[in-house]
Automatic annotation (TrEMBL):
SUPFAM superfamilies: S-adenosyl-L-methionine-dependent methyltransferases. It comes from the Bacteria. It comes from Streptomyces griseomycini. Pfam families: Methyltransf_19 (PF04672). This is O-methyltransferase involved in polyketide biosynthesis. InterPro entries: SAM-dependent_MTases_sf (IPR029063), SAM_dep_MeTrfase_SAV2177_type (IPR006764).
Amino acid sequence: MTHPREEVRARLQTDRPHSARVWNYLLGGKDNYPVDSEAGEVILKTFPEFAAVARLQRRFLARAVRFLAGEAGVRQFLDIGTGLPTADNTHELAQRIAPESRIVYVDNDPLVLVHAQALLTSSTEGVCAYVDADVRDPEHILAEAARTLDLSRPVALTMLGIMGQISDDEHPADLVSTLMSALPSGSYLALSDGTNTNEALNTAVGVYNEQSANTYHLRSPQEIASFFAGLELVEPGVVSTAAWRPDADQAEEGTADVSVCGVAVKK
């Protein structure tokens, strides 16, 4: 019988890069292993702007959650593909506006979950919960999320950089549709992903895929936009990550053409 610690150690796969840990390295974090930093450096050597792409996605998360908790009035968030905690996590952003907000974080990396449970602590008025699950199992995610969220009331589903980890053979659009179908009218989808429009980025991701435990699949902006099928896009629609409701007082970095994002509501 496998000891729980041995199982976690096996899942960590510290001999191969993992996407959440590589992303953490690119964001300047320290929750990664040498194999992850090495993979990050390979990416940066081929596509030096990649760290800026990571920062742009975090800034989009902040703007999107502020919109969702503020203007849209959402009080429940389902964050799939959480990644390792950093500044301005989903619950911090939402509870800063509405302390009673309830957030469920979902990831299948054991290191992410350990850090999430230790660091992503809710306000006293709200709730944070953590689910060990893979986006490829949306029914399980929904069942676990329902322990914390009232799925008869609007939920904001955030999926940043996660659909790129799903191959076309795994039908990513169907996964998004299954999740959104279970949520009521008034729910939102906030999604972003990398595009295949830059040859240097395509090369960098190809090199990463050859050594990583998780492969990443860049797609055209049109393919990423198709994940919002059946939903009503919030202005300005599906645009480059830097162009979605930018903060007037913050100049964005110039790598906006390699990732797109959008927010849409279920009517």
